[in-house]
Prior knowledge:
- By secondary structure, the chain is mostly helical.
- It has helices spanning 2-13, 20-41, 45-73, 79-86, 92-107, 110-139, 148-177, 180-186, 191-217, 225-251, 254-260, 264-291, 307-326, 333-340, 344-356, 379-387, 399-416, 421-427; strands at 360-362, 368-370.
- It folds into three domains: 2-32, no CATH class; 43-295, no CATH class; 307-389 and 399-427, Arc Repressor Mutant, subunit A (Orthogonal Bundle), CATH 1.10.10.10.
- It is 72% helix and 1% strand.
- Helix 3 crosses helix 5 (92-107), helix 6 crosses helix 7 and helix 10 (225-251) runs antiparallel to helix 12.
- The protein is globular.
Amino acid sequence: MGRLIAWLERWVWGRQPLPRGAAHLREAARILWLVGRDLAEGRLTLQAMGLVYTTLLSLVPLLAVSFSVLKAFGVHNQIEPTLLNLLAPLGPKGAEIAARIVGFVENVRVGVLGSVGLGLLLYTVVSLVNKIERAFNETWRVRRARPLGRRFADYLSVILVGPVLAFSALGLTATIRASDWLAGVQALPGVAGLLDEAARLLPYLLIMAAFAFVYVFVPNTRVRLRSALVGAAVAGFLWESAGWAFAGFVVGSTKYTAIYSAFATLVLFMIWLYVAWLILLVGASIAFYHQHPEYRHPTVERAPLGPAARERLALAVAVAVARAWYGGRRTRPEELAPALGLPAALVERTVEALAAAGLVGRAEDGALLPARPPEETSVAEVWAAVRHPAGGPPVPLPPPAAQLLDEAEAAARRRLETQTLKTLALEGPRPAAAGLGPVATV
C-alpha cells in the first residue's frame, strides 16, 4: 500500500508531459488530492462545525423572516414541503423535525417582538449569512470582507429576495408539469420516456444550479461560472449520494435512540447539517482549485517567501498597478496572482504592506489604484515598504556589522531612488549614474 501511494503521488505531482486526456485526469486528481488534504487538516471540517452551530441558532429566525416575506406572495405554505425535501434523508425523524421547526416559526409574532426584538431577529439572520460568507472567503483565500454598505444590500437580497425566487422557480416547474401543452407533448411517441428521465434529473439540476449560485454570489471575489459549475456538479452528486447513504444510516441507527433517548433526533439532525455544510464547502474548494491553477502544488501555500522574493513581488505589484493606471485600466489582486504564478494570499499581503506605506490604494469595488502619482514614487520607497514594515522590532547588532549593512543598504537606496514607478511601468529602468557601483537587484 505504501508503494502504491508513493507511485500515485509521483504520478499526480509529476512534471512529465502526458496526452491531453491523461493531463486533464491528472489535473482533476491534483484538485481532489488538495481537497482531501484540506479535509484531513481540518480546514473545511472546522468551518462546517462552526456553520452547524450558527445554523441551529439562526434557522428559526431565518425561516421566520422568509415566512413573513413569502406570506405576502401567498406561497408560505411551501416552507414545510421544502424542509421535508431537505430533511428527507432523516426519514420519519425528518418529518418530525420539519413539523417542529414550522411550529416554532408560526409562533414567532413580529408585532409582539417590538423594535428591539425585531432588531435582534434580523441580527441573528444577518450573522448567519455573514458567517457563511466568512467560511467561503476562507475557502477562497480572501482576506477582505465586503464593505458594510454592500454587505447590507447583498445580505438583504439573499434573505428577502432569495426565498421568493426559489419558490417562484419551484412553482413555475410545477405549473409546467401540470400544463396541457406538456400533456400533449407526452402523447407523442418516444417523448414520454425522455420527459420521465428529465423529471428524474430535474432535482439534480436544481441542486447544482442552487450550489452554483451560492459559489458565485457568496465569496467576496470574482468566481468564474465554469469553475462554479464544476464545483456545483461534484457537490450535487455528493449531496444526492450522501442523502441515500444517510437514509440507510438512519434506518440502522436504533442504537442511537437507545443511547440518546429523546435527544437522538437532535443528534441526527446535527450530523446531517454537518454533512450538508461539508458537502457545500467541498464543492467551493473544488471550484477554487479549478479557477486557480497556481495553487495546484502541494507546497505552494507552505513554502516560505524569502526577503528577496518579497521585494521582487512588491515591485512587480506596484509596477503592475502603475501600468494599469497609465493604460486606463484597473487591476485586482486576484488578477495579478495568476499572472505572477503565485497564490492570491501572498499578493494580498503584499498589497496590504504597500497600502500601509501609502503607495497603493483601493477603490470601492476592490480594484487597486496608485495612492499617489507613480512619477513621484521611487522604487526605493516600494523596496522599503516590505523591507522595513512599520511596527517591526529593532534588531540589535554589533557596531561593525550594523555599519556594514547600513552602508550596503544606503548604496542600494541611492541606486533605487533614481528610478520611479512611472519609469519602470512605461519606459524601463534608466542606466545607473556613475560612481554608484553595482548593487543587488530587486
